[in-house]
């Protein structure tokens, strides 16, 4: 009789895409679409001369993050060993985006709130991808 939580390698614990791992998966699936829409909206928006360079740079950066998020999603479904590190890097990029938004807006209240939420959520998921037994047992290829 096969035990459902033991991998053929003999490591005990949960494995496969399930449990709390579903939440980052949902973010990885939705993320590229959101970044793609954001980059499209920023690159096609009417811009004044003084903000054109900043919005263009932010739109190009959103395209780069969109492509990287899609790459992370592919690695996630392939269950590659590099997937947790790549996804953690994606969360670090999101923290950096929040820092730059905070600096660009001179610390407006709503930007500070977004920064704190991003910092807390990203920190939790980075720690999860580093310490979870499910992650260690799932991404083995």
Give the overall shape.
Answer: elongated
Summarize the main sheet.
none
Overall radius of gyration: 18 Å
End-to-end gap: 25 Å
Question: How many helix segments?
Answer: 5
Broad structural category: mainly alpha
What's the number of structural domains? 1
Order of helices and strands: HHHHH
Number of strands: 0
Q: Which residues sit in consecutive blocks of at least 5 with pLDDT less than 50?
A: 1-8
Helix content: over 70%
Briefly, what is this?
The protein has 141 residues and is mostly helical. 73% of the residues lie in helices and 0% in strands. It has one domain (19-132).
List the helices and strands and how they pair.
Blueprint (H helix, E strand, L loop, with lengths): L21 H23 L4 H29 L5 H22 L4 H23 L1 H6 L3
Description:
- This protein is mainly α and 141 residues long.
- It has one domain.
- It is built from 5 helices and no strands.
- It has helices spanning 22-44, 49-77, 83-104, 109-131, 133-138.
- The longest helix is centred in the middle third of the chain and has 29 residues, at 49-77.
List keywords for this structure.
single chain, 141 residues, mainly alpha, 5 helices, elongated, disordered N terminus
């Amino acid at each position: 009789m096969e035990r459902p939580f033991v991998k053929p390698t003999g490591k005990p614990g949960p494995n496969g895409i399930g449990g709390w791992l579903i939440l980052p998966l949902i973010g990885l699936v939705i993320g590229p679409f959101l970044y793609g829409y954001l980059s499209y909206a920023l690159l096609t928006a009417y811009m004044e001369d003084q903000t054109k360079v900043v919005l263009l740079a932010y739109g190009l950066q959103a395209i780069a993050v969109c492509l990287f998020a899609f790459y992370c999603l592919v690695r996630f479904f392939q269950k590659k060993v590099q997937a947790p590190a790549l996804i953690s890097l994606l969360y670090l990029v999101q923290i950096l985006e929040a820092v730059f938004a905070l600096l660009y807006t001179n610390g407006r209240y709503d930007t500070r709130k977004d920064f704190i939420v991003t910092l807390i959520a990203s920190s939790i998921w980075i720690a999860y991808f580093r310490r979870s037994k499910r992650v260690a047992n799932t991404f083995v290829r």
